[in-house]
């Protein structure tokens, strides 16, 4: 384990070098992986919308005429000749192809959304940038609506499909659209602020940005001698950013018992820190993360001064 820098009193000292932004940042590997996931997601979404366009501009325009034994008449709307007793119907092959197209559009949209959400967990947006944060995290749902809504409307307004065809295709389209949209929504999106709160907690509790995790599970831990990671899997140690890169979404809220288990000092206000961190991890933006209060000032693993008032 890398030892944090210490000041003359033996305590770890926060860096005094001026920094423009001490917020959490992803590792280079995580950022590259997120970029790759996003490009693949965009390609899948583009295919979904392209298939929607093919369905609208070609498939839904297919028709067959039945009863073509009447006399020729001129259609005043189109100027074309038609059989007087002929009836235009939507072909069965086109109907089956339409159902398949709806399923494929859903598969493409959902797969793209899953990859996009993975990318957002590796390289999240800032919650303070409200519009960007919303669009980036809910883009999967937005794309799903775009990929389905026009097509569903045109299915129900198609003049050549009979009622049964409209009912079946429309119902399937609505169900798939709702499923794709629901799966595209990120109900608790990651953010730079959430990850920064976890990182700040770790540094103030341990004196450095170093945590432990194992393969499997979704959280990382403050030390390795805890029951949750005694799984037989290899224990991995790294920064909070490296833990996120490995697929861990947040710091465990059981950090107080873990500190005690590992023989480390536990702040007196651990429950307050836990409560605040839980709210922040849940998406709250108006919560202040308390500084640890130690029974003895010498218990503090790091000395961090409050920022000067603006």
UniProtKB/TrEMBL annotation:
Protein name per Swiss-Prot or TrEMBL: Uncharacterized protein
Keyword Transmembrane helix among record annotations: yes
Annotated source species: Leucobacter komagatae
Transmembrane segment boundaries: 39-60, 93-116, 137-156, 168-185
Keywords of the record: Membrane, Transmembrane, Transmembrane helix
